[in-house]
Amino acid sequence: MANQFLEAPVLAQNTSDLLYVVDEYVAVSPMGTRMTKNACKDCLFVIVNIGATVPLEYALPLYGYLLPIFVATTTVINTFIVIVLSQKHLRTPTNYVLTSMAVTDLLTGLTSLPWFLYYYTMKGYLVDQRSGLDSFWCHVYPYLSYILPTVWHTAVIFLTVFLAIQRYVYVCVPGSIHRVCTPLTTRKCVIGIVLFSLLTVMPEIFGKYMEKTNVDGRNECTIRYTSWVLDILGVQLYYSMYYWLRAVVVHFLPCILLIIFTYKLARTIKLSDFINSGIDPPASRKCSIAAGPGRTLHATNRMLSVVCSVFLLLEIPAALIFVLHIAIATKVLTIDPRGYHILNVLLILRNILIVLTSPIQFTIYCSMSEQFRLTVRQLFSSKLLFVPQAQATFHGGKRYSLILVDVEKQEENKRAKAKSSFLQVNHRYVYGL
């Protein structure tokens, strides 16, 4: 699940005043807030108006009913992926990264689910329209709707980048494997990524806070800014710096890195296919060493290349939408009022697609990884055995690892070989060969 949880500055137009306001799910609205005179002049507080920026006719069925089902489904799938990849024979640095991706994706959905259930499924929006959010939801909604999910989705983004870099090291810089791709180094990198993801939302946590405020006799949920934002930066500069920096560091840069390393990995796979087919391409074979370790490594590279490519297909539109919203909010771009509505609807639809990341990844694992399929079967069947298998390494040696084999398939292969041998002997006997 992705950037539906990312907060962005929302442009409010009130005569000539420009005010950055915060609303749910990167929403943009030309008339999205109600504000006091002081709010426009001094930006002391902004009244939260969720309904003005999220089209209810789309949000209610999709966020209120469909998305909780998808979150529940992805929770089950991610839990299953974690169980499978945590099996002893699958504990490799690469699988540790994949497991971490599943956990962070799981937390992205779970931390946002309470807000979806309350506001849309249980019709909390009616209470909000009638009397405003109560004190509890006013204080926790920023954390449940975008801050915590943003932390976990940011971690997913950089874990995917780390996965691509790790595979690049495996196939193109094998001499660095024992420094970059060890279990200890991988764990340190994963922890560092999570801490960095938490650091990216610190301006949100320490720059503003929610408070119930009486406005015209109505208790409104309002956003208030801390003294360092008001006195040092100012609200407009605070939002501009934070969100443009986030757009570059959290969205643009990871997408560029993923494109580069996924391309290199795909190119290596193509070279390997040439070599395996007996054609030695005249092009540079700098990374063609990836063909050496054999079919298992080649299949792993292909699977992870597909995982990164699918993630890019979902993340690039997400990044473009995020940047587009910021550009509109900061008046870098201007669109007519109908454009705001279209952007918000597209955002909701994209959010639904993002939730489908986990089922897509599960399908990739099952269709492209024989060991993943066998491990899934092993959890429910006793007809699988662990056997040692010698595997080539990048530096020319061999290592032994346990792999699962299908007992029934092995027996079937033995019977087929025995039958073939019998027919050959019988053929020689009949024809006197």
From TrEMBL:
Name where it mostly resides: membrane
- Provide the protein's localization: Membrane
An example GO CC term for this entry is:
membrane
Which PROSITE patterns does the record match to this protein? G_PROTEIN_RECEP_F1_2
State which residue ranges cross the membrane: 62-85, 97-120, 140-165, 186-206, 243-263, 304-328, 348-368
Origin superkingdom: Eukaryota
- Any GO molecular function: G protein-coupled receptor activity
User: What name does the UniProt record give this protein?
Assistant: G-protein coupled receptors family 1 profile domain-containing protein
Q: Which organism is it from?
A: Acrobeloides nanus
